[in-house]
Amino acid sequence: MSFELKGKLTDSSGNPISNYTIKAYDKDFIFDDPLGTSVTLDDGSFKITFTKEDFNKQLGESEIDPQIYLRIFDLDGNFHETNVITDPFTPYVNPSEVKQCEAVVIGSGFGGTIISLSLVNKFVAEAATPGSAKKKLVLLERGQWWVSHELPSSPGSHEFEEIGKQKKGIREFLESNNMPYRTWPYPDNINGLSQFLNTVRILDRRGLYDYRISNKVHTLAASGVGGGSLVYTNVTEKPQKIVLDSWDSNLNLGLNDNNLKKYFEMARGFIGVNKIVTTTSIGDIKLPKAKAFQDAAKKIKQETPTIVTNESTFDTGDLGQDLSKFEEDIFAVDLSITDIPYRKDENTLFKKSPYLMDASGKYSYSTILNSIQGNQPENQFLREKIASILLKYNSETNVCQRQGRCALGCIPGARHTNNKKIFEYLRDSKKKDHFEVRALCEVYDIEPLTSGAFKYKVYYNDYSSREQKQVIFNGTVGSQSYKLEIRLFRFVDDGSKKTIECNQLILSAGAIGSTEILLKSVNTTRTTGQKLNLSNRLGEGYSTNGDLLGVINPTKTDINATRGPIVTSAIKFNDTGSVYTLEDSNIPKMFAGVSRFLSQSDLFRNLLGYAGTGKVQKIINMITQNSSNVSLNITFPIQISEQDLTKTLLLSGMGNDTSDGTIKLQDEWKNDPNRDMNALNVVNVDFDMNKLVPLFSKMRHSMERIAKEIGENGLDSFSTPLWNPNPSNIDENLTVVLHNLGGCSMGKDRNSGVVNSNGQIYNGNSANLTEPYTDFYVIDGGIVPTSLGVNSSLTIAALSFRIAEHIVGSSNLPVEEATVNSKKVYFPR
User: Fold this and answer.
1) Residue 495 and residue 461 in contact, taking contact as beta carbons nearer than 8 Å
2) Residue 485 lies in a domain
3) 214/681 Cα distance (integer angstroms)
């Protein structure tokens, strides 16, 4: 059982009292248990959270609710003690909660975010017509909000507070609306590591990391507002042309590289991308790991130029660019992180364009101003370029600080995650009227309705369910009279079962999540209403995306693996029909101590097994090399030097597998007549390891070529700890999949897929093989029909924009189209 105590301290005139210390206690017979401490902020607010484990039973006490009271300390150390906060508690009801609405979106990853914002824009536009009914979209997300601990929870921390009226930041917004949230694990020491490990859902249903263990396949997905964008490595790269064209030529989906280009550009503009390979923004010194990897990449390209497919990103239409003078950095990947890059391969707007140079070859403000005036083509180009830069960096804030903790949560907030997009719509007064986000709401059943005003009924469990007690205390501490307003929330451990009805239903819970929801719905224990009847292909067509982990340890030189974004560079291959990508990857310093396990297969597998089964203490003991003296109850920050990782480079591989794995319900659960519909982790993910051999053999060979250049001991420094290439050991291998695809794959009809190319779910009751359910879609990685051979986020976003345009029209998409140098570009709207 968890508790959250929120309050506000004011004086007799209602003015906030800041910097007073509030301590919470549980009153006991002998000695009272301290529950937590907080200091009032500039608006007088404070918050203390605690759990059932913080209460100590004494002298045979039974399991009873705590007897909570507070002490208020002034600046001189004087304190006043309140009475005990007693029962009864009453259920907390969200004032905006409805049971019927126009649209429900399940999941808030790239698909869920893009379609949610698009529908909200449509509803806002429709509401402008007099007499129109107000439509509302409810977003159901199984996880909670996650934010940086550095974000302020009261308005006094804003730098420009006195200039105009500041909008609330995301943490302030969540606090003022009583929405549960957690902060990213921090600092980077054993305490932070313990906090991180305890965010796995097997330990905490409200946790962030959904790590599942099947026989041969381990899968990792996110569980939070923002979906996979919260934990990915920010790579936003497009698949190779041959992959996208195969969707048309082999699958008859009518989708190919050419007709998807526009949507990939929309996705790039919406997400916001930059290349980050340097030690600082606007610097020109490459990160050591990026330089080492790219040097190896250049040699591979020189030796075998026909299999390396990295393409030029030079803008050949840039009138101020002299391509003969610069060498392009073709191996730097696009990342969804804010940065102001120094690019030697591209003329920057104000420094090098010949149109900004006076007769003596110097640059000045006057030449810049002169050069953007007039109607010459070059002047028009410069004006458009300036406008595009202003648009881009107006929405991309907080420059990357190279902390290397992307997948753990970016403390400075330089990553472009979906929760920020969602929040911007929630704090817009017009859009908020049409938009509600319900976090910690996990869907387990969908019923198609055959009568009434709505088409679908969604069953979910609300893990944000709370009971509350409100009380006001008045008193004096020292010479100061005070008023203390308290709201104490008591979370319901098992949540509350709820339903909501809608006309439009979009499933965007990720490849594993969406497939699991549909499988549960088909196999529901409900004895009322209708059941979904879907394609027999449901759960088929699963792809690992060829995810393969390589390790180079030790490297020849110090590569400072904890510095920079997790991924900076990639080599793309088309190797005799096998399409794949290899990327450099680092390890956040929170994991310093693991380097010795990465090259030892058995130990590394044990480490993953402990993570997947919630054995946090085992992991702590392994990393600290201490089996007895280090416990999870430590109160001091045991620090492990990041020097441990300075010569360790990870290689992340992705390639085109056979895309014929399965996601199936576990027989034990499926055959139980009393099965719990909301049970956690009831699917098995399976893939034939033998079918990965041809792809992984080529990927390992290319990884070995990199290791020859980077490894201190050449090939002896290289390993793939989860994959043994020995043919006799193939069945002992496993793969950890970070880019789950398929399960609800697109197909030309329901005999070949679960959804059509617009994401509409095929109706299994229809005599027509291509007839879909009305207004029922899947929009996430589950619909991707093949492996991609590259990180999946940009492709999912591009497909989402295409489907959103089909549903709401182009004018309601959350991107703004502009023409720069005769090309269509897109910016967030």
Assistant:
1) yes
2) yes
3) 10
